[in-house]
Structure formats: C-alpha cells, structure tokens
Amino acid sequence: MTAVKEAAVPQQQETDLPRPGDLVVARNRKYDGTSHWVVPGRYLGVDEFGHWIFQGTHEFISRPGAALYTESDAVLLIPFTGDWVATFYDEAHPEKVELYIDLAMDLRWRRIRPEVVEFHMIDMDLDVVRTATRGLYVDDEDEFAQHRIELAYPDELCTRMESACAELVKAVAGANAPFDGRDAAWFALGRTSP
User: Fold this and answer.
1) Does position 5 have pLDDT exceeding 50, yes or no?
2) Using CB atoms within 10 A as the burial measure, which of 13, 57, 91, 149 is most buried?
C-alpha cells in the first residue's frame, strides 16, 4: 500500500475551474489512493466561501462495493480554503441528514471535456454531521484512528485534521457562515436552472 505524499498543491489553471452549467464529477479517494465515492453534479456558481454544485435526486453514485440512486437533492460546497467539503441535504434525505462535512485534503479541479470537470479530493475519514434526529456529531473517529496507524498518517496531518474538525463543529453549532442557511438559495437555483 503506497500512501499519498503531501506536496505543495499546484496553482489551478483557470481553464480547469468549472463554469455555471458544467457537469462536475466529484472523485474521492482515500489516503492510500484507493477509490471512494464518485458523485456527479452540476456547477451552480461561486460566492465568497467557495464553489457550489447541485446534486439532484435520482443521480447514480458509487464507491467500491456500493452503488445507488440518490433519494434527495443536495448541494456541495467546495471551499476556497480549508480541509473539508460540505454537502447540504434537503428534507427528503432518507436518514434525515441535513449536513455532512467530509474532512479532506488535496482539493483539485481538472477539466476533462469542454463542459465536464472532475473534482478530486482525499477523504480523511472524519466527518461533521448534523441530522434532524440526532443533532450535531463527529462521525468515523474510529476509522480515522485505524487509518492513522494502517495508512501511516503523519502526526502533523492528524493534528491538522482534528483541529479543522473541532473548528467546523463550532462553526456549525453557532450557525456561522457558510452554515447559516445560505444553502437554501443554492438549492433554489439548482432546482430552477437548466
């Protein structure tokens, strides 16, 4: 198993960044390079926090060992800075998930066709989750602890992810931007734009 080496993230080429209406294929992988979730969406636009992507109901998503059609609409926020991506779900989510934040690193864009962009990230296990039934909590701490040993996460990286996770919990609990309800406007745009 070969771990991903942390390196300076190269500057994104302007031509790689998505434009409104582009298909965005989110391709997640784990620290050792193994594939994780692949989720399509449509690029909506940008605000002061980052890029917003609409992921509609009945989209086919998959990861090794699992494949399904989504049962609710979602909007994905890819921040300009930070070690995370956030998915906001509507009330139709079957498990009543409202917000799911993946701690992640090495966020990159790559244009593969004139109207198709891939978004790549390394999923770092820890998740900040808010559901209508359970409230706000941190998930997959056991997976993070296991992978810290099995995949040889550097100590500095673990500290960085744990710190980012704690900051996100505070931001969500305090309804601080971008977790202040602004996703509603992006849902509306995603449902009405072609």
Assistant:
1) no
2) 57
Q: Is 40 left (phi over 0), alpha (psi -120 to 50) or beta?
A: beta
Instruction: Please answer whether residues 173 and 137 qualify as being in contact, where contact means their C-beta atoms are separated by less than 8 angstroms.
Output: no
pLDDT digits (tens, 9 = 90+) for 116-147: 999 999 999 999 999 999 999 999 999 999 99
What the block records as the tokens of 146 is 């296991």
- pLDDT value of residue 17: 93
Q: Are 18 and 43 in contact (CB under 8 A)?
A: yes
β-sheet bridge partners, residue 102? 85, 127
What are the structure tokens assigned to 78, written together?
């890819």
Does pTM surpass 0.90?
Answer: yes
Rg from Cα positions in the chain = 16
Instruction: Tell me the pLDDT band of 12, cut-offs 50, 70 and 90.
Output: low
Find, among 84, 24, 37, 41, the residue nearest to 190 by Cα: 41
